[in-house]
Amino acid sequence: MEDFIKKIGLYVFLLTSTIVISQTPGFNYQALILNNEEIQIPGTDVTGNSIPLGSENIILRFTITNETGIEYVEEHNIITEENGMVSLIVGEGTPINFTFGDIIWDGKLKYLNVELNILSNDEGFVFLDSQKILYIPHKINGDRNIKIVNSLEDLTPPHNIGELIWHTKFGKNRNPTLLIWNYTNWVPVNDDYDNSNELGLLVVTDDSARTKKFQNPVVGDQVWNKTLKCIEVYDGTNWVSITTKVLNGLQKKENIIKLGGKLTEPTKITTNNTNTLAIEGLQNSVNNEDLVVVIDKNTGVLKKKNLIQVSQQKQVVILATDGQLEFTIPLNFTNTENIDVYRNGVLINFTAINSTTIKLEPEAICYKNDKIRIVQLF
Question: Among 163, 216, 292, 312, which lies 20 to 30 A Cα-Cα from 173?
């Protein structure tokens, strides 16, 4: 049986994808299931060793997806015919996820994914095929017909505002698209904002234009506010935005909100011993002219300051004895990078002997009364 399931071939023949059957919408699905890889069209002769999977208890699982995810899943528990045929209506199976009636048939491309489970073995579901599916109802709200055309030249004016057509090869990519007449042009329904039809959304320039258009708004009225760049809905008292607005240090790209942007109001982040604030992965500064961040002692506001203004220094001048190399510095230290040593005004190298003593490089051995200036940052 294992070899058998691996050899199953499937041909999907959609009789139509635009029918509506009484109260239950759906579309016919026919397939011929064979035990080899040869593709056959239903009704043709099966040649060679292409033996149909006849009289078998099977489960067919149909998953309808769009570009963002799954819209509907259903299963059909059936018995194949003697010649391996199956015939059913997608939409009348047992719902697994969601319901067929909830699918939004907006004219955008969807896919029908098919899986097969032969109950006489323990293989479980096996993926068979994925087909493009273009399904639209013949009517909207029971009374509006949709005409299917291959070209806009197939249409004869005049057209009515809100009239819909299904264009099978629209745009530069020749994609199937649902179009609406907006009084002057045929446009995709997603691009239509004319409030004269229920598929559209009224656009207003700003709040003032919205008020003029809706002098007596009712609950549920909605507009696209071009200034605020959001959809607003009247809730009976106020116009409320139902589109996410990004402000104050955030930015939005498509449907993703990211950190980064202009602050539009004073902003506070409150921390405590438990809820601390940390920034990991900062690079080490090697430029003495880099700025540091300081906190205003009165307001807590972050400010910037030059490093030399932040650091305090201690320096001492010592008159050397003849042949002297070792000197005691002003403060105990752990890092020699915070110490500079000058011999008669010339910067010289040194090494640390301990936390209080340094030793000049041999070439800088002192003569009597040489001036050794030690500058220490802390």
Answer: 163
